[in-house]
């Protein structure tokens, strides 16, 4: 896509988001899904949350709809899931500052912490394991800690994607910032699929619960 196409895409998303913010919505019908990571470092273990967001965008048919939003320093894409709307977010800030982008987007779209999903890497789970956690501590994850601080809450549901832990504790930083090995890359596609399935199933269930509430 050329510069003109990118400019038009950005303008469309800006107008769409303005309508979304201004128009009334049913409670619980919009969700923010944030893939935590470091911008400019795709393919690294620490940015696997962003890889899940890429798979999610492809599944929802909005892979070509990402556009930069300077108000929250992030790339955003809007998608529909039944009657619900999903705001997909990939921060353009470093992992330790991801929370600023997430909180600004939550404010922009009028969402509470409970309506914000965080997708991130998990050292204490092996590659291939994914799990959904409802609230709780950051468990040493700096991106989650940043989100908790900026949202002033620990209530965000979190999709944790296992990346495994290195043998030596002093190698953790190099490990998480490193790229997946060739063998790990072969395992990654089905992991991203399972993570996307788990996330969408949970959002569908919550959306249905919201629609049936008085």
Structural commentary:
This protein has 214 residues and is an alpha/beta fold. 42% of the residues lie in helices and 20% in strands. The protein has six helices and seven strands; from the N terminus they run αβαβββαββαβαα. Strands 2-3-4-1-5-7-6 form a seven-stranded mixed sheet, with helices on both faces. A hairpin with a 4-residue loop joins β2 and β3 (74-81). α2 (48-59) packs across α6 (182-211). The chain is globular.
Kindly report the oligomeric state of this protein: single chain
Low-pLDDT residue spans? 3-7, 18-28
- Strand numbers in spatial order across the main sheet: 2-3-4-1-5-7-6
> What does the average pLDDT come to?
89
Q: First CA to last CA: what distance? A: 45 Å
Provide the structure class: alpha/beta
**Tally of helical runs:** 6
**How much strand content do the residues show?**
15-25%
Radius of gyration: 17 Å
Order of helices and strands: HEHEEEHEEHEHH
Q: Estimate percent helicity.
A: 40-55%
The largest β sheet comes out as:
7 strands, mixed
Total strands: the figure is 7
Outline type: globular
EC number: 3.1.1.29
Organism: Rangifer tarandus platyrhynchus (Svalbard reindeer)
Protein name: peptidyl-tRNA hydrolase
Pfam families: Pept_tRNA_hydro
Keyword list:
seven-stranded mixed beta sheet; disordered N terminus; 214 residues; globular; Pept_tRNA_hydro_CS; single chain; 6 helices; 20% strand; alpha/beta
Question: How are the secondary structure elements laid out?
Answer:
Elements: H1 3-22, E1 30-35, H2 48-59, E2 67-69, E3 74-81, E4 84-91, H3 98-109, E5 116-122, E6 130-134, H4 142-151, E7 157-162, H5 172-177, H6 182-211
Parallel strand pairs: 1-4, 1-5, 5-7
Antiparallel strand pairs: 2-3, 3-4, 6-7
Helix pairs in contact: 2-6, 3-4
InterPro entries: Pept_tRNA_hydro (IPR001328), Pept_tRNA_hydro_CS (IPR018171), Pept_tRNA_hydro_sf (IPR036416)
Protein name: peptidyl-tRNA hydrolase
Organism: Rangifer tarandus platyrhynchus (Svalbard reindeer)
């Amino acid at each position: 896509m050329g510069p003109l196409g990118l400019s038009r895409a950005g303008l469309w998303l800006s107008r769409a988001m303005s309508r979304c913010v201004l128009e009334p919505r049913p409670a619980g019908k919009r969700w923010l899904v944030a893939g935590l990571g470091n911008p400019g470092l795709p393919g690294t273990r620490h940015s696997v949350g962003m890889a899940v967001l890429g798979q999610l965008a492809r599944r929802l048919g909005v892979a070509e709809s990402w556009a930069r939003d300077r108000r929250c320093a992030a790339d955003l894409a809007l998608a529909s899931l039944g009657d619900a709307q999903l705001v997909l977010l990939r921060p353009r800030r470093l992992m330790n500052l991801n929370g600023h982008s997430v909180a600004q987007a939550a404010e922009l779209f009028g969402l509470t912490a409970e309506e914000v999903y965080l997708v991130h890497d998990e050292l204490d789970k092996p590659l291939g394991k994914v799990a959904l956690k409802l609230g709780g501590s950051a468990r040493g994850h700096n991106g989650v800690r940043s989100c908790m601080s900026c949202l002033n809450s620990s209530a965000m549901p979190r999709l944790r994607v296992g990346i495994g832990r290195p043998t030596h504790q002093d190698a953790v930083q190099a490990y998480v910032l490193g790229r997946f090995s060739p063998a790990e890359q072969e395992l990654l596609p089905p992991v991203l699929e399972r993570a996307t399935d788990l996330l969408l199933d949970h959002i569908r269930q919550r959306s249905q619960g919201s629609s049936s509430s008085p």
